[in-house]
Protein 1
Amino acid sequence: MHEYSQISDEVLCALGAAAGEDNLTLFEPMSAHTTFKIGGPADVVVRPTSTSDVVKVLDTCAIANVPVTVVGNGSDLLVGDRGIRGVVVLLRENLSAISCEGTRVHAEAGALLRDVALAAADAELTGMEPLWGIPATVGGACHMNAGAYDACCADVLESVDVYEPGEPLADGSRARGMVRTYKTADLKMGYRKSRVHDEGLIVLSATFSLAPGNGRMIRVAMDDYQKRREEKQPLEMPSAGSTFKRPEGYFAGKLIMDAGLRGCRVGGAQVSEKHCGFVVNAGGATAADVNGLIEHVQEEVKRQFGVDLEPEVQRIGEF
Ligand SMILES: Cc1cc2nc3c(=O)[nH]c(=O)nc-3n(C[C@H](O)[C@H](O)[C@H](O)COP(=O)(O)OP(=O)(O)OC[C@H]3O[C@@H](n4cnc5c(N)ncnc54)[C@H](O)[C@@H]3O)c2cc1C
């Protein structure tokens, strides 16, 4: 066992057998895997190269009772400065195949939504245009039912293949999981929520059902959506997108601006000058800085307007 790790050599060997030893790293900083560019080291990062290897890795962790965190593009995550204990399964790098057949696009969980949309445009398929600027992987987008411009993942998703964790056992470990396919109608997808999230399912791949379109018009629409994002959002600075969910009847960004918090800083974390709904890493921000700023914004908005802001950004790991 490594000095700081909670992972035994036996489990490391089993993970190496499941995913290939070259696809394991120890104590890799999660700042390399989050769009916030923040986050301490993960005990182990595993990069499986096939969906069957993902299943083997997840089963290995379940049986050994080792905590697992699945990470896509890290675009919705604030990882604590002390990092993540257990195993991080990173899907973006090695699990990103995309194929088109008729009006369907099939993508592995680590494929970027952007690349799925580009493949769809090449195949003259319409439907992904409003979503393509979301910096999500397919798995992360299904987990959150990511959406933009009145569209969401559920609108174009036909089905997902998932790993369903096995039953909890008396010693705290779990039985092997099983792979099954869910139609979108059975995924309970709502505003930034889904059965994937609620039941801890792991998306392995997804099939999108699109409509025939005109390739040139699809690209014009994509460019238009991208311009709108560039105009409004601080894309030039590291962030995790909208920091807070939209409170009913309000816009988080407007409340924060009206509270006089534009540009407000805690350490390297700052309320964006361009869009107050985004906390950005203005340079050298720690997770503690971002957390401190989130709490300050929540307190001020509550004090001034009586509105509770709920974070959309997911805080994981040790702070
Ligand atoms: C500049 C910017 C703009 C953004 N704009 C939008 C927007 O317009 N609309 C929007 O909805 N979001 C937006 N976001 C937030 C973010 O992109 C979405 O929440 C996205 O769905 C996260 O996907 P991800 O692959 O990065 O997931 P991650 O951040 O890696 O993970 C998020 C959650 O999903 C889980 N997860 C990841 N992969 C899987 C999988 N294969 N199976 C099961 N669970 C999984 C993780 O465990 C974690 O709980 C934006 C973010 C940024 C940085």
Note: DSSP finds nine helices and 19 strands in the chain.
Protein 2
Amino acid sequence: MKAASFDLAYPVDLAEATALLARADSRALAGGQSLGPMLNFRLVRPSLLVPIAGLAALRGVEETAQSVTIGACVTHAAIADGLVPDIGLNVLARVAEGIAYRAVRNRGTIGGSLCHADPAADWPTTLTALGADALTSRGRRIPMQNFIRGAFQTALQPGELLVAVAVPKLGAGARWGYVKACRKPGEFAHAMAAVLIDGAVRRAVIGATGGAPQMVGDAMPGGLPGVVLARALAEAG
Ligand SMILES: Cc1cc2nc3c(=O)[nH]c(=O)nc-3n(C[C@H](O)[C@H](O)[C@H](O)COP(=O)(O)OP(=O)(O)OC[C@H]3O[C@@H](n4cnc5c(N)ncnc54)[C@H](O)[C@@H]3O)c2cc1C
């Protein structure tokens, strides 16, 4: 199928983008890797698309002693290629290079992935385990575990953009495990789990659950989620 017709309006800056997105029937377009198919299948029919991938305000990367802040429109490929500073253990690059295949990574963005909030996507689960925060165009700072609200649901309000993601750096001696089960390389996962052990921080998160990533307490989940979690725990040592 082909997308229903829509207008395109290229904003010059973040202010113009948010003004355009104040229209109820508008939609931000980042890498188009998820939105493109949704338009073609007519699952969404916005009358206005606002391409945001070229906006400098969404492409910056900032490193401090505590964290790395990654603009929403930084691509998976840029992260996989090491163009974003490491938070430790090369975690971000390792996650990024496991997303789909190169053509998708070249255009798909970290922010688009989080805003699309597919339960089987890599960033929602891994950034929840890493304790990242979402920074929005309304000046809100939202912990990742509150940002992803459910399958294809986020805490963003209408017209609000994700601007960046702040990821805390790992401490010395931190350990990380991330395992996903895919039928074929490059496919979306059927189960995934991420484990971070970093000083007093101990987080185990399972994804691809059909909803938001789930923090795991003491009880081990059963079935495939339990298997991938056991492997992620083993990887984290
Ligand atoms: C064949 C294929 C295989 C894939 N495999 C995987 C995989 O294994 N793992 C994985 O994690 N992902 C996978 N993906 C998804 C890919 O990672 C996409 O890049 C990602 O889901 C969406 O990013 P995007 O930049 O293309 O966003 P878009 O498709 O442009 O946008 C997605 C949604 O987010 C909204 N949006 C985008 N950016 C913002 C923002 N800054 N603020 C507010 N709203 C915004 C858009 O309006 C839209 O609703 C795959 C995609 C394809 C096509």
Note: DSSP finds nine helices and 14 strands in the chain.
